[in-house]
Amino acid sequence: MTDHMHPDDIRTLFSRAMSDMYRAEVPQYGALIDLVRAVNAATLEADPDLAAQLDAGGERARLDVERHGAIRLGTAEELAGIRRMFAVMGMYPVGYYDLSVAGLPVHSTAFRPITPEALARNPFRVFTSLIRLELVEDRALAETAAAILAQRRIFTPGALTLIDRAEAEGGLSAADARRFVAEALQTFRWHSEATVSSETYAALHEAHRLIADVVSFRGPHINHLTPRTLDIDAVQAAMPRRGITPKAVVEGPPRRRAPILLRQTSFKALEETVRFQGAAAAGRHTARFGEIEQRGVALKPAGRALYDRCLAAARASAPVGADGSGGAAYVAALEARFAAFPDDAARLRRDGLAYFRYRPAGGAVPPAASVEALIEAGRLIADPQTYEDFLPVSAAGIFQSNLGSDAQSNYSAAANREAFETALGAQVTDADRLYRAAEKQSLRRALAALGQDHLIARLSDAA
Ligand code: OOG
Ligand code: NI
């Protein structure tokens, strides 16, 4: 027995603290949370089947606290330190995202809980990017940036002590956990005082706005905190009435009866007043923005390949301009291309396109001929597994929009997962492995509860 606070509970304390801090820093965030709550309540009331499905998957309870945030880091040491910090809260790096395809000098992972139980308790995730100075053409400027970054310390001494303690002792006491959350929060705070002169800022900004955002400040300010909505189109439509202007098009798949993967939309960054070193007058910087998302079922590799093909075809046939022009044609093209994608849960499952989670309806029954027979008889229920990750093309669109353009850009890829993992000091977990394991484990358990050991024996290890 230990008297450690559970990492899931530390994560809940931390995500609540982040949300409170962001609400105080960015007033529009509070307005968005209220809007999403209202839309979610109306959606659940109008759709009892969806409500039942979310209840069954343990997702209804988590919905009100569900958020993802994003940060951008400057160095390998920072990334390794963030990995250790998030591990204290039960968040681990999942997936590698190459954003160079969109001309962005970053690559990323998502820190998130990885077991179904931990996800059900609080799925807080942080999309975490590392700047890639090797992609900056101006080598002298890249060196200046590296030298500036080498000077900063993004973790408080108190946070570092408590991370060491959590690693050495396998956890933190409740009192230490509360102190840890308060110390960790400091890393993500907004600093209106820049660490560079306005000349240096201008040069960094010229190289890339992202570089200026990462290099010019004391730490990796949280740049958005995204609530999950059950109806993104309803929220997008209601945003202007609350004084919020969303980007031109929703990223990801089109609206579907059986939602897949992830749909996201964001609204423009705030313009903040900053004080540059040695400057008498106040300067300006845009870093932070708002975003909402709707999550659908996670896709198996075959489903994901089909998604990627449909999306690429739509993007190629109907490009969106920097000012958002062509948005309506793009949505029409997207819907046309995705007509090829099955749009009901039963077919997504039978065609092997999406991941599900199984549960028994009632107790043991006589031996059945197959898993399908049990499903048809209503004894075994398959619920869609929510996609818990991100999409590189969508993420690039969110970055671009926040950097001031709705244009869709396609550059040549320069992925370097190995360099990212070296910086991280660990390998990123493959998301597919997690969904596959959750599906398999739930099916075994459900079949055992139904007394179908002969069917368990038939499940292949690869399934
Ligand atoms: C991250 C942008 C990507 C998402 O949800 O895909 C993103 C950033 O701007 O730092 O937020
Ligand atoms: Ni985001």
Features of the shown structure:
463 residues; alpha+beta; 2,3-Dihydroxybiphenyl 1,2-Dioxygenase, domain 1; 3 domains; three-stranded mixed sheet; 12 strands; binds 2-oxoadipic acid; binds nickel (II) ion; dioxygenase
Describe the structure.
This is 2-oxoadipate dioxygenase/decarboxylase. Keywords: Dioxygenase, Iron, Oxidoreductase. The relative contact order is 0.14. Strand 8 (271-277) and strand 9 form a beta hairpin. 47% of the residues lie in helices and 15% in strands. It has 20 helices and twelve strands. The model has no long low-confidence stretch (mean pLDDT 92). It has 463 residues and is of the alpha+beta class. The chain has three domains: 7-296 and 387-429, 2,3-Dihydroxybiphenyl 1,2-Dioxygenase, domain 1; 299-351, no CATH class; 355-386 and 431-463, no CATH class. The strands form four sheets. Strands 2-3-4-1-6 form a five-stranded mixed beta sheet. The protein has a three-stranded mixed beta sheet with strand order 5-8-9. Helix 13 runs antiparallel to helix 14 (327-337). The protein binds 2-oxoadipic acid and nickel (II) ion.
What does this entry show, briefly?
Keywords: Dioxygenase, Iron, Oxidoreductase. The chain has 463 residues and is an alpha+beta fold. It has helices spanning 7-25, 27-46, 48-56, 60-63, 76-88, 116-121, 139-151, 157-169, 174-187, 198-207, 209-215, 232-238, 301-317, 327-337, 345-350, 371-376, 392-402, 417-424, 431-449, 453-458; strands at 67-73, 92-98, 106-112, 125-131, 193-197, 224-227, 262-267, 271-277, 283-286, 290-295, 356-360, 380-384.
